[in-house]
Amino acid sequence: MSKKITFLILSGPTKEYIDPVRYISNESSGKMGNALAQAVLKKGYEIIFISGPVNIYPKNVRLIKVTTALEMFKEVKSIFKKTDVTIGVAAVTDYRPFKTYKHKIKKNTLTSSIELKQNPDIIRYCGKNKKNQVVVGFALETEHLVNNAKTKLKNKNLDLIVANGTESFGADNTTVKIISADVVLEIKNKNKKIIARKIINETIRIFKNIKSGKNISQRV
Ligand code: C5P
After folding, report:
1. DSSP class of 119
2. What are the C-alpha distances in Å from 92 to residues 10, 66, 86, 197?
3. Nearest residue CA, atom 6 of ligand 1?
4. Are 12 and 31 in contact (CB under 8 A)?
5. Does any ligand 1 atom lie closer than 6 A to the CB of residue 137?
6. CA-10 nearest atom, ligand 1
7. What atom in ligand 1 is closest to the CA of residue 118?
8. pLDDT per position as a tens digit, 125-148
9. Model pTM score
């Protein structure tokens, strides 16, 4: 290994509890996060893997299990500075209930609406606070895939964004567009392991460019 690169991978969904039984969450199997971890391990680099609740967790990583977006954010804030590359593949729930009830709410006292509060945007925090680090995000879009992903790339100050549609949910194969400031690369109907290897190779290339002083013009 020529140079040590420490990866931080944020994966899985977050769950935001209304009461001990009910929660708000997003669809996420953790498969892509796992595939990314395997691709990084193959290269021999170290991984800190923060994951929301899923059925599969990678081995040979420093695994931190979390449930909520706030828990994930707390871990990221204490770890981010010590890492080189952050990949946000987590389906972070954008909102959490304003109030979490200690006991199960009785059906007859349930109201027809729940007050919500916005969660922090974790990958945006990484993008805005990066110092010679690479930050990669994912964008799941149901329409205007490339345009919406490009907007997120810019707003969150990311180096790369991987855009896909809902057909990727739980699937082994998927189609993605890997988007940087000036390049859109499409990979059609390939196994997530193959896609992960491509993303990691691209990420390492960007990291090495930054370290060697190239690519600076694209960075805010
Ligand atoms: O939800 P959105 O489409 O904005 O997600 C785009 C990227 O932002 C993903 O990488 C996702 O993990 C990240 N994100 C986050 N914190 C949020 C919402 C999204 O890190 N609260």
Report:
1. P
2. 9, 11, 15, 23
3. 139
4. no
5. yes
6. 12
7. 21
8. 999 999 999 999 999 988 899 999
9. 0.94
